[in-house]
Amino acid sequence: MTNMYTQGKIFLPFFNSFLFPVIAGGFLFACPEAVNAGECEKDKRLLFLNVDSSVEQNIDVHFGIKLLEELRAPLQEIEYCIKQAPDLLTEPDSAYSDDFLLYLTAACTENFDDHDSSSRRNCAINAGLLGKGERSDQAFEQARDRPLVRMPFVSSDSSTFYEVLAQKIVENLRTQYLCHLHIESEPSGAQVGARSGLSATTPLEWVVPVGEITIHATKEKYAPLTKNIQLSHPGNHTYVLQMKKPPFFRSPFFYSSLALGTASLAAFAYSQYQYREKYQALGRPDRESNPDLFEQTYHRAETAEKAAQIGLGFAAMSLSISFFIR
């Protein structure tokens, strides 16, 4: 027991100070998807990071993980959430194709020194941005040829390289792919939401990527409004939503006017029946021999006619109110 206790006292500090950080660090590097899972808020635009094998082979096998950590916080400030993309070869049609993809490649050249017959490799990192649904071979070629950022890699400055590269990516995203969307409404105070999860009350201002955004606006006593906004270029964009009253036939008073109008028509038809079919059919002998029947028939026709007039008046009043209260 003493030996086991002594061994435990030796092993536990060794585990806490050395083995546990190594195991935990290995898990973070090996399973970045598990680390990233569930971190994105619903109002952030997803940006997936994919690192080409040329970067891992020529520079650093953990290049993507290091850059991911540098990009996370500054991208959140401009309403982006970054995650590692699935394997482009095994999952070419996965759901992430509906979001932006940051694609990193490395272009390396060998320079030979004539004095000592040695060679020196110079590499440059290209960070290209692919838009929604752009996953064709041509799109990847364009991302390499016209990158968002191109930056030479200097191994002696590797400690600050990832930070500088992240700053350039974020700044170019901000200036080339972001829009400041200002939305107003007439009248103001409309609740506006987007499919991405953004929600605010007008007047509002959002920072959103270039592309298409669908918004839905609601306001009490006004008809809902859905609008597709095309943001074709970065910069400031202002839109005014004209909120409209719902059509009068949406008012509850409209349906009451229909009911009253129908009832008045029924009463009018009944009065005509009593007057023409019953009252006029009675002759002088009926009036002399059965005056109560004669009086009742006339009274029914008269009452039904008055009811029809009153119902028609209320129907007209209800219909008028439906134009103002909807």
What's the order of the H and E elements? HHEHHEEEHEHEEEEEEEHHH
**Helix content range:** 40-55%
For the biggest sheet, the summary is:
5 strands, mixed
Uncertain residue ranges: 1-12, 14-38
Structure summary, number of beta strands: 12
The average pLDDT value, as a whole number, equals 75
Globular, elongated, flat, extended or rod-shaped: what is the shape?
Answer: rod-shaped
Report the end-to-end length measured between terminal Cα atoms.
85 Å
Radius of gyration: 38 Å
Percent of sequence in beta strands? 25-35%
Strand order of the largest sheet: 2-1-3-4-5
Which class best fits the helix and strand makeup?
alpha/beta
Total helices: the number is 9
Task: State the gist of this model.
This protein has 326 residues and is α/β, with parallel strands linked by helices. The protein has helices at residues 2-30, 32-36, 53-58, 63-77, 137-145, 158-176, 252-279, 284-289, 291-322, and strands spanning 45-51, 80-84, 100-113, 118-130, 149-153, 178-186, 191-194, 199-201, 204-209, 211-218, 225-231, 235-242.
Would you give an account of this structure?
The protein has 326 residues and is of the alpha/beta class. 46% of the residues lie in helices and 27% in strands. The protein contains 9 helices and 12 strands. A hairpin with a 6-residue loop joins strand 10 and strand 11 (225-231). The longest helix is centred in the C-terminal third of the chain and has 32 residues, at 291-322.
